[in-house]
User: What shape does this take?
Amino acid sequence: MTERTQTLVHIALMTAITAALSFVRIPFFPVPFTLQTLAAMLAGILLKRWAGVSSQVLYLLLGLSGLPLFSQGGGIAYIFNPTFGYLLFLPALTLLVSMFHNKFKVAGIVVPAIMLLAFGAFYYIALFRIPFAEIGKTLLGFMVVFIPAELLKAFCAYFVGVKIKSRLIIQK
Assistant: This one.
């Protein structure tokens, strides 16, 4: 198999893993807890930088095209879903993890994960034009309450990703 074919297979596999982990959903208010971000973190650890990013862009494009790959469905109207900001940040999350996990270890995953939460919260604030007086409560509900879960996913991604990568022949 050529290197190009291998890369395409890796992109497709990571896209499929992201889709599969989106269905591991724990209902939570205001948005559900899923494992999509874990998949994006793993893509940043396991794949070459742009292959990892491509896997997440492909996941978004497939979901927006109408395939029900997101935790609550799919289609172009999903951009108006309160959780879409988190999804929109997945390629950036993968890029940042890819860039920083080797140098900063777990912190190179934790900081981008917190950035994802902030982006998702501010996307919601902008989309629904949340009044200034309500921004603190919105940040609490869309960001702060999810920090422990993102920290857990970041630690899992790091330790599982490093273990898997040591057994694979994927080099950055």
Summary: Residues 73 and 97 are 27 Å apart (CA to CA). Strands lie at 25-26, 33-34. The chain has one domain: 3-165.
